[in-house]
Design goal:
Elements lengths: L1 E7 L6 H13 L3 E7 L4 H4 L4 E4 L5 E2 L4 E2 L10 H8 L3 H4 L5 H10 L1 H7 L5 H4 L2 H11 L6 H29 L3 E4 L2 E6 L7 H7 L6 E5 L6 E5 L16 E4 L5 E4 L5 H9 L6
Parallel strand pairs: 1-2, 1-3, 3-5, 7-8
Antiparallel strand pairs: 4-5, 6-7, 8-9, 9-11, 10-11
Helix pairs in contact: 1-3, 1-9, 5-6
Length: 271
């Protein structure tokens, strides 16, 4: 099995270096890696067989040097590594991707204010803290810790690929306006990617019609702030369930699109 060295900075570890290492481990299944948390030598910085992450003041992908501290305009190391591995476009759909990049470059307070993420202290993730501390507990992280990081990297990549696939799916779905409210229809039982899709488009759909996971009908859903109350449909023969809060309802069978539009229109609150 091929063997390679990864060097990253000593001292406290962060989401940046841990995630960069995790992505490398996940994308190189046929390689056995050793990770050392120390300063790199000049020879190591010039050696393309040695990965140098988040240290060294160099971004030289051809030499596998992935630091960003030389410029605030340079993305965090985990972003640089993802781009090198061909994962940049896929991983960037993750809702936390750009936020975490800016946290590492500009700090949690500034980034939390920009992304309306709330109080940084309240938002600190104990699982992330444990993972980072496990990585930082030894100058040369153990095989057990690296196995956890590899599993973490695989999970991130698989989740991002699934999310991107769903976003791309919603981009192709028919858009329509029902009683003045923008809507979208998807013949899928998977709702993943909708929130991220809405962030990417100007005319955001406020009503989503998709297949019901529990039966053979449709699932009707509206986002907060939309003038739609699906509880108005309760008791109608087509309706299997209508939530009393009005945000969702389910039909008994898969109605035709024309009948579906007519039905949903009855839930729209006219101004």
């Amino acid at each position: 099995m091929k063997s390679q060295l990864i060097i990253t900075h000593p001292g406290s570890a962060h989401f940046d270096d841990v995630t960069a290492v995790s992505l490398i481990l996940a994308m190189n299944a046929g390689t056995e890696f050793k990770v050392e948390r120390r300063e790199p030598s000049q020879a190591e910085l010039d050696n393309p067989d040695v990965w140098v992450l988040d240290i060294g003041n160099r971004h030289e992908p051809e030499k596998r040097n992935f630091d960003h501290h030389q410029s605030l305009d340079c993305p965090a190391s985990f972003v640089l590594v993802a781009e090198y591995l061909g994962l940049g476009e896929t991983m960037s759909v993750m809702p936390w991707w750009h936020f975490k990049d800016e946290v590492d470059r500009f700090g949690p307070v500034t980034s939390s204010e920009k992304y309306h993420a709330g109080d940084d202290i309240v938002n600190r993730n104990p699982v992330e803290t444990w993972l980072v501390d496990s990585f930082a507990s030894n100058q040369n992280p153990s095989a057990e810790v690296l196995a956890i990081l590899k599993a973490f990297g695989i999970h991130l990549i698989e989740e991002a690929r699934t999310l991107k696939k769903q976003i791309d799916y919603w981009k192709t779905r028919p858009r329509l306006v029902i009683a003045g409210v923008p809507a979208i229809i998807g013949e899928t039982k998977e709702s993943a990617g909708l929130e991220e899709f809405r962030r990417l488009v100007d005319n955001k759909p406020d009503i989503v019609i998709s297949l019901d996971r529990r039966n053979d009908g449709w699932r009707l859903f509206r986002y907060d702030g939309a003038p739609v109350d699906f509880s108005r449909l309760a008791g109608r023969p087509e309706i299997l369930f209508a939530h009393k809060n009005g945000f969702t309802a389910r039909t008994k069978v898969r109605l035709s699109v024309d009948k579906l539009i007519e039905l949903v229109g009855k839930a729209v609150i006219s101004s």
